[in-house]
Amino acid sequence: GLSRLFGQEQTRANTQNVVGSYGYIAPEYLYRGEISTQSDIYSLGLLIIETTTGEKNQPNQNEPSARDFIENVRQNWTDGRIASRYSMLKANDLQEIKVCIKIGLECVQIDRKKRPSIENIVKRLEGRCAN
């Protein structure tokens, strides 16, 4: 991700030249030029959501952020929708889908301080901690 440009002790920076794929750029970077390790978590969250739901974030010139896509997932990917979309799956597998969507949505919080750490995400995806 973009945060690989940091030194070992650096955790955030500001820039005037925003680069990256629209729709996957964290809002604090897109609108204020602030980049941090949590900016990469935001992008990861979008990829987790896309992979889990099978839906693609489609940003446009009028709205380069993923706001509409994220809101659609929050509103429409309810327990009932997940169960009907994946009706052939067992309860355990459905729970894993729900966990992935939940993790993805936590990763795309507007407040970067509320986003989980990569360590927390990995543990949860591996099923090593409570969700």
Report on this structure.
By secondary structure, this protein is mainly α. It has one domain: Transferase(Phosphotransferase), domain 1 (Orthogonal Bundle). The protein is 50% helix and 5% strand. It contains six helices and two strands. Strands 1-2 form a two-stranded antiparallel ribbon. Helix 2 runs antiparallel to helix 5. The chain is globular. The mean pLDDT is 83.
Sequence-ordered SSE layout with sheet pairings:
Layout: E1 12-14, H1 27-32, E2 34-36, H2 37-53, H3 67-76, H4 79-85, H5 91-107, H6 118-125
Helix pairs in contact: 2-5
InterPro entries: Kinase-like_dom_sf, Prot_kinase_dom
GO molecular function, one term: protein kinase activity
Protein name: Protein kinase domain-containing protein
